[in-house]
Design brief:
6-stranded antiparallel beta barrel, 21 strands, alpha+beta
């Protein structure tokens, strides 16, 4: 019995020795992939921001005369107007009567002044002949001066009446676009009431709040890319950066001029990208970056066609390329097509181009 047990143990040890000498089976590739090497590209640096579109200058228009009735409104919102163009007319009848009265008073004052001047001149001749007293002569001279002053007063009243008559027509103070109308024909207006609004020269601007950390990289004259409601890109130019920072939000306002006749309108909200310059950066195909659990990863081809998963820091996207700020070297071979199906340590088969 003991002999059989010993023989069985020897047989078992022999089997184990034979099993230990077997060679490991070669790894079999499970996925066909393509690879690419990181490259250096010149990319545009941008700061993303959001803001509102507003008029560069919106002028509130009203009349300088009160108690008069609106005769005609000559414009509608959206109309383009030129400097001096009539926008609104008031009832002119009362003002025209006042202007004629002032003109008549001025003409009468001039006639009185001419008569007084002639009498004063004749009085000087009579005084030289001792035909009138000095007192009478002085009265004639004073009357000439008084009537001359009355001419000036009447002339000022005439000019004032003419000016008021001109106020009966509200004219455009500059080129621009009518943005609002708050008046109707027949309405009795008051001084200072808002009747029309004018976007001066039709200029719009984009106003966005920028974090204080990004302000140092912004410069007047830099371009801004906005997206219109129809999907078209609108390019603006930074006109000014606010010199003060809001202590509550730690942001400052950036003002960017927008082109005329753009797809944007005053009051719209728009996302924008402020271009702050170019830089040489390392990029890889965007398809090669895999996002998992909130982090970005690349798969780099290692020895024996086995991939290594690396966590990387990404930057801006430029078309089909994406910036890699950390985690990859220039000599690495990065998995492009098929990266989303890999795990760390997988064995792959590398092909070129679109081969499968």
């Amino acid at each position: 019995m003991s002999t059989k047990i010993v023989a069985l143990l020897v047989f078992t040890l022999a089997l184990g020795a034979c099993g230990g000498k077997r060679e490991a089976a070669p790894a079999v590739s499970s996925l066909t992939v393509t690879v690419a090497s990181p490259s250096t590209e010149s990319v545009v640096r941008e700061v993303a921001a959001s803001g509102s579109v507003a008029a560069w200058q919106e002028m509130i228009l009203g009349v300088e005369l009160g108690g008069l009735r609106v005769a005609r409104v000559l414009v509608e919102p959206g109309d383009e107007v030129k400097l001096g163009q009539p926008l609104l007319e008031l009832d002119r009848r009362t003002l025209e009567i006042q202007a004629r009265q002032a003109e008549a008073n001025w003409q009468r004052a001039k006639a009185n002044a001419l008569l007084a001047a002639a009498q004063a001149q004749r009085g000087e001749s009579l005084l030289a002949q001792n035909l009138i007293s000095s007192n009478n002569h002085e009265e004639l001279q004073a009357n000439r001066a008084r009537t001359a002053a009355e001419v000036l007063v009447a002339e000022a009243e005439r000019d004032s009446a003419t000016l008021k008559l001109g106020f009966a027509t509200l004219r455009a103070p500059d080129d621009g676009v009518i943005s609002a109308r708050n008046v109707q024909p027949g309405q009795v207006v008051s001084v200072g009431n808002e009747l029309l609004r004018l976007i001066r020269r039709g200029r719009l601007e984009w106003r966005a709040e920028i974090a204080e950390n990004d302000l140092a990289r912004l410069a007047v004259g830099a371009s801004v890319a906005l997206r219109g409601p129809d999907g078209t890109e609108v390019t603006g130019v930074i006109r000014a950066v606010s010199p003060a920072i809001d202590p509550r939000t730690r942001t400052a306002v950036v003002y960017a001029d927008l082109p005329q006749n753009a797809a944007l309108r005053a009051g719209m909200f728009a996302e924008g990208r402020l271009r702050i310059g170019a830089a040489e950066v390392t990029v890889v195909p965007r398809q090669s970056v895999v996002f998992r659990d909130g982090f970005a990863y690349l798969f780099v081809l290692g020895e024996a066609d086995r991939v290594v998963q690396r966590r990387v820091e990404t930057g801006s996207t430029q078309g089909e390329l994406i910036e890699i700020r950390a985690g990859v070297q220039s000599g690495d071979r990065v998995i492009v097509r098929g990266a989303g199906f890999l795990a760390d340590g997988d064995v792959v088969k590398v092909v070129t181009g679109d081969a499968s």
